[in-house]
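Subject: design request, 180 residues
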């Protein structure tokens, strides 16, 4: 079959090559385009590009190896592309999105955590605290909640977080155990 004087296999192959190139470009520059499909999940650029790749690749292969009509091959390819897109979305993209959220943390979740001062906190000044988390070490600016100096290497308790600064007090595990 020919469309506008061009063989259908050539159209499938050209579409496959172009959509493959766009997919590679999307890998590198996808953060710029990610806002497009934020509220509408079926406009996800990953799923659109995957649909075009699945459609063109299956159409090309079916045209090459089967004696079926081009219209039937197009319908089979569309069905195959939809099924593969659904599988990609439910078994790859959705689990990746939820896994990304599960290792993230909020500043609110760090209140009450114990950390270690890595840059001493002077009176009326700022230092730095490091908290060991599930996703790695979290380093943030720190200030003394009681406005007292805190030496480097001291363990501290995060009491409050304002504008990204952790307000901490020295944490003594021995006095905590004697109170209980």
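Subject: RE: design request

Done. Sequence follows.
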């Amino acid at each position: 079959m020919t469309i506008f004087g061009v063989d259908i296999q050539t159209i499938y192959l050209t579409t496959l090559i172009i959509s493959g190139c766009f997919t590679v470009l999307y890998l590198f520059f996808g953060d710029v385009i990610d806002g497009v499909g934020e509220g509408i999940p079926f406009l996800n650029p990953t799923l659109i590009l995957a649909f075009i790749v699945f459609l063109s690749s299956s159409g090309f292969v079916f045209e090459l190896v089967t004696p079926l009509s081009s219209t039937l091959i197009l319908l089979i390819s569309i069905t195959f592309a939809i099924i593969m897109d659904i599988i990609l979305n439910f078994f790859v993209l959705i689990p990746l999105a939820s896994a990304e959220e599960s290792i993230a943390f909020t500043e609110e979740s760090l209140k009450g955590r114990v950390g270690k001062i890595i840059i001493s906190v002077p009176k009326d000044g700022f230092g730095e605290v490091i908290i060991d988390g599930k996703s790695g070490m979290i380093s943030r600016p720190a200030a003394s909640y009681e406005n007292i100096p805190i030496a480097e290497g001291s363990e501290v308790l995060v009491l409050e977080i304002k504008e990204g600064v952790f307000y901490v007090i020295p944490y003594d595990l021995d006095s905590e155990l004697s109170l209980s």
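The chain has two domains: 2-102, 108-179.
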